[in-house]
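Hey team,

Filing this mostly as a record. A colleague (T.K.) asked me to run one chain through the structure pipeline before their review meeting, and I want the input and output archived in the tracker in case anyone asks later how it was produced. No errors, nothing strange. Just documentation.

Input sequence:
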Amino acid sequence: MKTLSNPDDTQEILARLGTIGPTNERRWGKMSVAEMVCHLNDALLIAMGERRATPRYTWFTRSLLKWAGLWFPTQWPHGVRTVPECEAKRLGTRPAAMESDLRVLRESIERFTRRPREYKLQAHSILGPMTEREWMRWGYLHIDHHLRQFGS
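Output structure:
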């Protein structure tokens, strides 16, 4: 199973980020490619405690949904709504310049995966408290999901 704790999987993600730009069209959803880059960065910043998000998890989301989303061998469904703190048209970061936003995202991925860790992992807004193993699996799946959204 792919995870950001595996350097090869992280390098794959970083290489795929190098294939996206302003001309990528979405295959589903409402975000632009620029909004997606900011969305991914906001989610990592929340995980690392550098950005706040209101907890919205329930027993179902922190148990069954978390297990299925992280470990069931299928791709994540399209159209699942994100939290307002990760949505550019609401409380999330608004895109600036694509190259600088991509650079910031790459830096966040590097910090998220660096060991020893320089931050304390926070609870996920929807999936609740997670172990490092779960966070690294989530990180890969989340970024992969949105790169596929834009054809990469």
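Quick notes for T.K.: The chain has a mean pLDDT of 95. The CA atoms of residues 57 and 82 lie 12 Å apart.
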